Amino acid sequence: MTAPALANAALDETAVALPVQETARVVRDTRPLRLITCGSVDDGKSTLIGRLLWDTKAVKEDQAASLQRDSNGKQNDLGLPDFALLLDGLQAEREQGITIDVAYRYFSTDKRSFIVADTPGHEQYTRNMATGASTADLAVLLVDARVGLLEQTRRHATIATLMGIRQFVLAVNKIDLTNYDRARFEQISHEFKELALSLGVRQVTAIPVSALKGENVVYDGRASMPWYEGPTLIEVLELATTRSAQTVGFRLPVQRVSRPGESFRGYQGTVAGGSVKPGDSVVILPSGMVANVTKIVTFDLVRNAAVAGDAITLVLDRQVDVSRGDVIATIDSQPMIGLAFDAQLVALQPEGIQPGKRYWLKSGSRRQRVQVQPVSQLELKTGKWNHADELPMNAIGKVHLAFDEQAIFDTYEQNRTTGAFILIDPDTNNTVAGGMITAKRAALGGIHTEESRVILSLPADLADQLMATELFANRREDVEVRRVTAGKAVEIIDTIDQ
Amino acid sequence: MPHTHPETELHNPQSTKPPLDPHLKALENEAIHIFREVAAEFERPVMLYSIGKDSSVLLHLARKAFYPGRVPFPLLHVDTGWKFREMIAFRDEMVEKYDLDLVVHTNPRGAAENITPFTHGSALYTDIMKTEALRQALDAGQYDAAFGGARRDEEASRAKERIYSFRTPDHRWDPRNQRPELWNIYNGMIRKGESVRAFPLSNWTEVDIWRYIQAEEIPIVPLYFAKKRPIVERDGMMILAEDPRLELLTGEAKREEVIRFRTLGCFPLTGAIRSSATTLDDIISELETATVSERQGRAIDRDQAGSMEKKKREGYF
Question: Which structural domain, as residue segments, surrounds residue B61?
């Protein structure tokens, strides 16, 4: 595939956001695009972001002057200040010359505004990348044209995919240092496209870039690269789609009950999926009570509908018991409710995730106790999941979650809000993991599928016998056996019979 | 028992304003979400109110978030005693008009030790009359959460601050050890004495603030609009010369100029800009072609290297 063809793959029509209260006019999606940039210090990431800010005039003269002052007059060979200083905001970082945390940057063109999460490329900072990626619609991955794809490129692409990003831009930077070598660029783009496809990402644009010279960032680089006919980076960003309001049905996690007087009782929250209008029947979870929507109240007007993203106050037609942490949902397509779920998570703190420890889990406005059992850990180098009993910092793992009280989720694949959670260590109150729900588990285990795998919970001797049979001999990869006592197995089989 | 104020139902006249554009709507939704989350999770929230344009937007969003209820927490104004006169008048008008609870605090050391921006220099003055005063007020109110109007685009160290910014019992911020913040799920768990500063405007830029003020018809202090005002030039800044405490130094002379302010702080530390912008449209178009950042007029950002980060570690907003 040629480079322009690759590039065009990402230029599908932008999704259209249609505010319900407006007339049926087609409006371009002008919501801010959130993106994350991934790459190492050596790939020139700070220079790329600095270039974006500079060429979109997000850097003002006084900032440029203090930049000149801080770089002690050091300039690059184009007479511009050291862009990295624009981004490395904290003194500690300046001293070490590395970016140590997530920084947010803002710039805009006349078509759209952008929020960039700038995260470090060093391996130990997986946590920061996961943080930046959690809210991003698109990932810009940087490689040095002279070096090509690195192990860390796979790592970044994997984390971005895991966090739900489905649009990639590969910026093949320092193309000027390869003498604008077209074959080199096409080879790298091809390799990257293979990588992205292996992760299930189809929206990929590769762009040959010189961040230092400002070629194919905001302004095109035709003078140096007449062979490249694809879009500049900014053109791709202007046309990218923001995360769609995933459509599993209406969801309102209740943040707060508003009772300003005897006559008014409203449920306040941000719509986390679908839409709602007066007259709709809804269910309140976990209680399962049913009611009808009478009004959607906002400061400006009583609205005739609300869509995902809207912060609203909902009024119901009858007295029902609703409190903070409950979810109001459409009756037809309800979220999963249960005591056991499967999830993937990223361990964010030095203590890692310890098996059997009771954490706080917060999802939406709901906070509850959970026990976390690690199952496997992702080897970022190869993409393989290896068995694991605990997860150290920066590990990405599959876990089982066991709750004391009913939990309410969608899968992350279906809804990036109601499928996401954080874990809080009750001893330190620190956020120790970010997680994504993949499936609900049967309360007592038993047989169920987890993606394409089959899980058998059986007494140990029986399990060994079964796995020795011809039927399973060739399918060991597909089956996970959890050895349990005979007594436990009876309990499990009893629940299956019911 | 949560620290709530008696809620009364408000009735807003039906608005005739056109709907917000999707960009501003997304920012508004995010801010309202943060307001509601903090109000629900903390026992004694307070809103820092500095009377400037960002505070005006913050107040407007708070009113929207809790409508039809009242704003369920007090506003806190740390008054250095050196604010512009028009700011104080505007503050009192807002409190009256929107039925708000206001707490005003001034560091008693200011009067006792006669600490002024002229005698002590901007760094020491700010430390005592703003940072120390804020700590006193937060301790006195036993507030466990404080809303602020800071934006990440304002200044380099703010770009990395979380929306829920954790503070130790002595109000310190540790930029190296911030809690990770994923999605829009905020961790509000703290121990007694610890607190959180919450920033609903984190993702807004200066232009967003002005466009929102225009779209929502939010009242702001008239000093933002150009008018002929008395000024004196000092250290490269044009300072408003209306307060009798401002003593002219040798070689200085008062004169009148058509000016306005892009940000508002303490009048001796806030520089005016030459401008003929008398309407919001003028301000926005001036901003879109501006070549300097808004904090260029603020002396305190530049009084030492990494100065905002240092102030923030010590508890400044």
Answer: 22-209+307-313
